[in-house]
Each structure stands twice: as C-alpha cells, then as structure tokens.
Amino acid sequence: PGVDAAWALLAYAGPARRLVSGLKYRNNRASLVWLATGITQVVGEPPDVVTWAPTSAARARRRGFDQAELLAAAVARRLHRPARRLLTRRAGAGPQTGRTRAERLAGPAFDAVGPVSGVVLVVDDVLTTGASLAAAAAALRAAGSRRVLAAVAAHPSAARTAPRSRVLPPAATAVLLP
C-alpha cells in the first residue's frame, strides 16, 4: 500500500466489523483499548512516532471526533511513543467511504505538517485499497521520514490474506499485509 510494512489486526467482517464501525460511526470508545492493545501486539517494528491518516474535516465536524486520531493516540500510549499530528488532509479530499475502487485509488491527498524524521507508524481504522495510506506515506517521505509503517484495526481481505501471509502472534487473525 505504499508503505514499508503494514499490519491488520482483524478481518473486517462479522463482529470485528461491528466493533470497528461502532468506534467509527457511533463514537463507541469502549473498543479503543482492545483495538489499540491488539494493534500494538501485531506491529512488527517499533516506530519513533505514531500518527494517523486524518478523516475529512467535514466528517470530523459532523462526528465530533476523528476515529483514526483516537486509535493512534491509544496505540502510541501503549507503545510508549509520542502521537503527533503529522498530516493534514488537503481541501477537497472528501471521505473514502462509499466510493468506488477507482475513486478510492484516486484517493485523498495529504500534506505533512512540517519536517518528519525517523520511523513513522500511521494508524487507521480500516484499510480498503491502500490509497489513503499510500498518500500518507508519500507526504511523510517527502517531509523526511526514512520509513513509513502502517497498522490498521481491520482489512476486508485479511481473512483471505492470512493463509498466504505470515501470521503475527498473539492475535490469531493478525496478518502482515503484502
């Protein structure tokens, strides 16, 4: 997905889909601790800093929160690393939800807030096409990051990917994404 390594905690289906959707659409923060703990267990390389792919400004205003920011902050606390807003979403880059694959791949555009160094972990709730993470990685590399990693709570094809990928314990459904 344009990053040096990416991990997904869960397959985005069934109870896992309800868990992630509860955070994303209903601000159900009870799932944050569980998801953040799981993500920290599957990340295969320690980052220097944790950030997130910010949601659209309209979505953040309407919801009153950015689920990726909440998740990134919780992951950073558990990794004992700083969580920093390193990215802004360019104006006009609307939400990815509900778009076709082609529209998603044209994806959002991000800008780095300032200079970036070291290894950055980008946290997001769901990875679908990888367009958001690829755009985030491009912005972070342009700002100076030497490695960009990604960790997501869920990925729709994680269940199909698991047999072909290295499963990362202790989370049985965690996979290293290709």
Q: Any key phrases for this structure?
A:
five-stranded mixed beta sheet, 7 strands, globular, Rossmann fold, alpha/beta
Secondary-structure element order, N to C: EHHEHHEHEEHEHE
Q: Name the CATH architecture.
A: 3-Layer(aba) Sandwich
Structural class: alpha/beta
CATH domain topology: Rossmann fold
CATH class: Alpha Beta
Strand order of the largest sheet: 2-5-6-1-7
**Major β-sheet profile:** 5 strands, mixed
As residue ranges, the low-confidence spans are 161-174
Count the strands?
A: 7
Tertiary shape: globular
Helical content stands at 25-40%
Radius of gyration, in angstroms, nearest whole number: 15 Å
SS field, number of helical segments: 7
Strand content: 15-25%
For the terminal residues, how far apart are their CA atoms? 8 Å
Rounded mean pLDDT is 81
Q: In the residues, how many domains can be counted?
A: 1
